[in-house]
What does this fold into?
Amino acid sequence: MIRGKIKKKATRFHEMNIFLVLIVLIISLALINNRFLSFGNITNLLRSTSMIGVVAIGMTFVIISGGIDLSVGSVLALSSVIAAKLMVSGTSIFLSIIISLASGILAGLLMGIIIYEARVPPFIVTLAGLSVFRGIAMLLTGAKKVVGLPENFANFAVIRVFGLPGMAIVWLLIIVIGVIMARYTVFGRNIYAIGSNPEAARLSGINIRASIYKVYAFCGFTSAVAGILMAARLCGGSPSAGSGYELDAIAAVVLGGTSLTGGIGGVFGTFFGTMIIATISNGGNIMGVNPFVLEIVIGVLIVIAVVFDHLQKNK
Amino acid sequence: MVSARKEIIRMERISKQFPGVTALDGVDFQIYKGQIHGIVGENGAGKSTLIKILTGALQPNSGNIFVDGKKVIISNPIIAQNLQIGAVYQDLTVAKDLTVAENFFLGQIPKNRFGFIDWKKMVQKTAAVLRELNIEVDPNMILEKLTAAQKEMVLIAKQYFKQYRVVIFDEPTALLTSKDTEELFRIIKKLKKEGVGIIYISHRIEEVFEICDTVTVLRDGKRITCIPINETDIDGLISRMVGRNIDDMYSITHQHLNKEVLRVENLSKTGVFKNINFTVNHGEIFGLFGLVNSGTTKIARAIYGADRFDQGSIYVDSKNIRITSPSIAVANGIGFLPEDKKTEGLAVKLSVRHNVNLSSYSNISRMGFVNGKLENQNTRQQIKSLRIRTPSAEQIVINLSGGNQQKVVLAKWLVNQCKIFIFEEPTAGIDVGAKEEIYKILELLIKKGSAIVMISSYLPELMGIADRITVVYEGTQMGTLSRNEFDEKRLLQLASGVI
It folds into this structure.
């Protein structure tokens, strides 16, 4: 049988819909304003969206598993600050990045451990994480931005590979990893199963502990990746970076058709969802629409997408 | 008997089809004022479907319902409540974190002249009703804090308070002790005296004879008979329920391999079960029999690692294995088929393919990557050999019928190549055709040398297919009988604690 068939029918249906919405959106914006499809604007759009895009991929897995991660913005800031401080203190860029990523993974893992072992709802644990990790980032920096990063590192924000911004390539890489994990790995299968029915998954012999640890660790990892991108983009480690990212990421995931009750969803949907939100704000800005109006539009869109989804399902 | 036979509800030629199953086939049913009308039938006979239609939870495909001779359409549970039809088993209007009195007045809280809640009136009226029915419960108690028996009494009292005209009891004694059951019967008789029509569903035939004045027998979705209780006896009722020669249905070729595969020694869990001992051989079907809440399910769950136990050892192929989680059980070739498929056996939002392979991904993967070819091959093979009726391997499991869902759960363990299968009520809630298919599969399993531990509260089935049956009463093992010693009466006695 063809590999392509190994997909959740419902998800694929939603992914197609949301993809079409994105295409229609891009075409209409291009027709209304010729600046929208300009090379400069598109690369800028991809660059500025890459961070939330990366975070949303990790969030997708957590939500498919039936959980939620509210700490992503704080973990992002913490990793970003850690990377920046290390580099400023003379640690090599490579090692700094590795340690920063490890700190993100550790933060996620820690929350995963508490969620599984103490059976505390993910909402509560990651809400605490949101507070704790932001606090640590602030303490480490005295609430000031860490500046003086090596030029080689800061250049990454503007680097291009085959015309694509380096940041967008990192995003693409995370998407590819996400798709592979969701579709072709045991981990992916188990996450869907746990999200669909944790008790049935447990009674089927699935190692819930390992899966929960991994899914929050992965989300911590993506937050850290976004944190490093953020440090490059801001030319420094900002302890206040990424605030509010948790809600933006959840919005992108939900718009992309992933069910908040778990078990249903996918990475492509999240990518399209992220792009739709970014395109609306970007296009709106170009056309000079009041940004507050844009926020209303995005909110309405999320509700429409979910209602539409329910109607489809109940048919 | 009530002199005036005033009809309250008449259901005429009710039919209900589910995909692939006819749950009800032209069933007639009446209930009169002050009548206690029993409904009996095997699992899957259509009892609960009939009740769900009456309470608005399901819509019939055809047939009419008349209340007081007027045709009604009960399209949702609210309408049923407005028609004063209540069911004790699933009162939708219960708030378990509120007090008894608040629950009585839910939706119509009395107000005093300042527009505030009239607590005094609420408590007094509730207390009066409870007193009238001789129920010793404080109206100020939080519902959740009551015992199962008290909760049930309170629910009944509430229906009485709301002056429901028809009250449905679905397996009301399942969680009650015999003393509580007496109490329940006293209240039911009181309701009867007040002219309430009572529908009483129970697996316990003796109870039906104790409390009902009329009984309807359903079998395979059809009404077999409706007779006054004093015109029949237990044997007569059972033969009408079963309606076929039991031996035919359960004709399984038994295997006789004397090689032990599972041994349970002194398994104990404080307050739940103690000192459970048994061995199961390859190719054997070993029955665990007990009445509701006897502990059989808990024992099985402990063996599988789904619940913890305090003491005892488990041996698989004579090797002592510490089973602390289902994943360890699975790794040692034990599979578990829970009674409640939807909440414990299946990931219903996922595809047939995903569910079939659910417990086997570690076997069909390398370095964490799933071998999609094997995955699809497994799925196709199981769909074919178990004859799972599904449009495709990608169908979401929730859209399958109960029997096919059961087969998907079974397929999950077949793919895993288990050698020990623990079945909890494997044929509960599936139709007769699917049942026979399941028995055929069991036969195939033992032929291959697998061992089956089967928990069933349905004795004819267990007697029909098991090689040996061990009986559990209140967590204590009462005895083990071999096939040539099987005797329904003896087994029931043991299960009731009579030695």
Observations:
- Residues 7-245 of chain B form a domain with the Rossmann fold fold (CATH 3.40.50.300).
- Chain B has two domains: 7-245, 247-495.
- The longest strand of chain B covers residues 7-18.
